[in-house]
Structures are given as C-alpha cells and as structure tokens.
Amino acid sequence: MTQGSPFTILTHTDPAMSALPEAPGLLNDPKEKALRWKKEWQAFYPDRDSSYLLSAVEPKKLEVVNEKYNITGDVKTWTPPAVKFKSGSKSEQK
After folding, report:
1. Separation between Cα atoms, residue 9 and residue 78, nearest integer Å
2. pLDDT tens across 32-71, in order?
3. Which residues, at least 6 apart from 35, have a Cβ–Cβ distance to it below 8 Å?
C-alpha cells in the first residue's frame, strides 16, 4: 500500500495482479499487534513493537488480472474483472 493511494495491491509469485480498490486502515495498537503476531515473522520484523503495522482491509471489490489463466481486463477500457462484496453477505461476481 502506498500512502495516499486508494488501492491495496497484492503481489503473487506468478505473473498476476490483484487490487483492492479501497484504502485499508493502518493499525498500530500494541494489544492488537500482539494478538495477531506470528513467531515466523521474527526474522522479518526483529523489533515487533516498532517495525510493523497491521492493515485492516474490508474490501468492497477485488480486481484480478492473471494472463496465465486468461483472466484479463477489457481490451478497450482496461477494466479488470472484479468481484464485488456485499457487507455481511455472499460476494457477487462482475
């Protein structure tokens, strides 16, 4: 996530892209961070109190592009395929 950006980009190991077009909230609450901490993260965040933040993401829509599986955007508008989420209910594919 880039500060000020309206998107959260999720990266993958294969050539694919996903975007959550809603800015997440950043959580720096020590109790919440301790609750969610995983020991496997120690190598990446040696000072867990100050070296990482949590992102709270409640997406309204998930956009996905993956050419390997022929999931591509509209050729004219470049609009990617998307899944819209309804608050508290099943998702709706677009």
Report:
1. 17
2. 889 989 999 899 888 888 888 887 777 788 888 888 889 8
3. none
